[in-house]
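User: Hi! I'm working on a homework problem where we have to compare a predicted structure to a textbook description. Could you give me the structure for the chain below?
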Amino acid sequence: TFLPSLLAPPIAPEHWFLTNVAARGVTSSMACCFASFAMVTVQGALLNLLPGRVYARCSGYVQGISAAIFFLCALESWHVVEWADAGTFLESFAWAPPVWFVCLQTDLLGRGNDSMQALGERAVWASAAALVSAVAIYFVSYWRYRNLLLESSAPARTAATRGFNWIELLVRDPRRAAVLEFMDKTLSRSRAHRMTLLGYGGLAFGLLINSVLLALAAAHWRVDWDTLLRFMVLYWPLTASMILIPGMRHALSVPVELNANWIFRIHESLGRAQWMSAVEMFVLAYAVLPVFVLLTPAAIMVLGWAVGLRMVTLESLAALSIFEFLFYSWQKLPFTCAYTPGKKPLASTVGRYLAAIYFLAPALSAIIATASQLFAIFVVFACGFAALWLWARRQRLQGWGESRLLYEDDDETPIGLGVKT
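Assistant: Happy to help. Predicted structure tokens:
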């Protein structure tokens, strides 16, 4: 929090510069510690209250939900600073932790009243309580559940208790079905990968809810459900795709057990094309299809059959093009390749994603909304979007099934010239 506190504009111009920086830095650091230790405390409480097998399944979902809540609170905190002086706002949202820390910051600058001082004290006590409870519950949980969670493994499911399997129903090719089964079981059993996906899901959920709140704030909080649904079906699909598809790519890149990838290497030549086809099917089924399954009925209900289907068609082609560009250089079997994190500066990576989410997605959504109104314009844009998708797909499939899969993420590998070998 040091650089944001130093580079942000002054909170109170009448105060000295270092006083502004110190007030912002202290409150921001305390807010971050409160969020982190509160999450640890919740996980520790679940660890002590739930059986080990149940906890192993629900802990990732708790972290995903917590990530969405905290990320949404972080986004909305920028607006809390502007509203903190309103007495009715403080009374209505005195339960919200972001309000506590804003009041603490205002009180440190000497501009707070009695109610702000009380909420600022609540922020201090909440941070201290989160820290103490997290440390205490960590030691209790470590000694009680060390054997249960770290030294024992859950028994594998037998064939009689497996239940319904959609892979066996939809996929007939045994090689493709085997890789889909491998990917599905890996994600269901690996808490690290499940937490990664839920983290991206929480990021997407927080951004989408924040976009709705910004739209309501721009309309002075006059709720018009028809306009709100129009905004959601127009903006949400592309934004969610721009977050969930890279998130799925990131999760598939992280290995599970590198010492076991030899079994895939010796069988690689028998089914490379089927394996890559399974990866494509898996990503589309889990990262793209749910978004459009949920929002297509809403689009048809709000816009009517004709305009709704046109809009969904253009958005689907745009989402498929995003997938093709992001997976253009993918020549790996998920969870089996070495992974080197941090190959690019974090600032450039975050900057590209923010530019795509805040500039490209709204612009593309506006173009799609305009093109969906008239059938003639829709045909032109649909042909253009389809041509872009087919071209990107053809480039990605070049050499598919013939190029060897990559198992070592080596930075010293020579840079290619666009030709897959």
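For your comparison, note the following. Residues 246 and 395 are 19 Å apart (CA to CA). The chain has 15 helices and no strands. Good luck with the assignment!
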